[in-house]
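Render Aspartate carbamoyltransferase in 3D.
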Amino acid sequence: MPRHLLSAGDLDRATALHVLDTASRLEQVLGGREVRKLPTLRGRTVVNLFYEDSTRTRMSFELAAKRLSADVINFSAKGSSVSKGESLKDTAWTLQAMGADAVVCRHSSSGAPERLSGWVDGHVVNAGDGTHEHPTQALLDAYTLRRHLGDLDGRRIVVVGDVLHSRVARSNVLMLSTLGAEVTLVAPPTLLPVGVAGWPATVEYDLDAALPGADAVMMLRVQRERMGGAFFPTAREYSRRYGLDRRRHSLLADHGVVLHPGPMNRGMEIASEVADGPDSLIVEQVGNGVTVRMAVLYLLLSGEVAA
């Protein structure tokens, strides 16, 4: 493992597989216990430093750390010294003085976790920074896909929606391509970032053309809170061209599965009947997130870190 997990690109194929295999072993160990807890990180302190609202990610990291018996401190920018003008650097020095062993950081500014990693001695995990990356989400998505599809070499994964504002899309393209999958991005031209041609993925504008025979489709949330202009005519028009309904779902391979990082805009990105259907792994993704984040914290804090 690298010292910090700031990007899905920090992990080569062997390291990514090591994280996923570790998560699988942890799941097996905990599955046989009445009390789902291990003493592995007893005496270590994990700080959840969240400058952005979050439910799934914050709770997932908190539960992961507690299942490894670590002490957990939850820091929210709202109601803290940040609201009084304290800078990220000053907050980092405070955490350093308190002896935090790991800091899980979510921030609205891209690159904030990387800056933080230069100010603290502990390990830093990027829990989502701006529109940049969300590496543990990519790991849990890969873990979920491996459980259902096996080896991802040569698997066709279609990622659909607001790629421009999605840190999940960036991390998943890096992670899935590292694991050998063939990734296709589908979005309107207005929701594709500059430089996407350099990503290890193909780009398609027609969802109906991209889905036939795909092993999995990952729908992305339309992030209206990050949109300052009109990126598509109407929600209805977006749904008509890029929403996943029953008809489009039928175009997948017979074993094809559906993912979504959440929260979902039901009826816009994805129909409820598909989101709640038997091929949907959306709820499973949430559960797998705890296991994968346990593996990340375990590997970072147990000494399996490259110098």
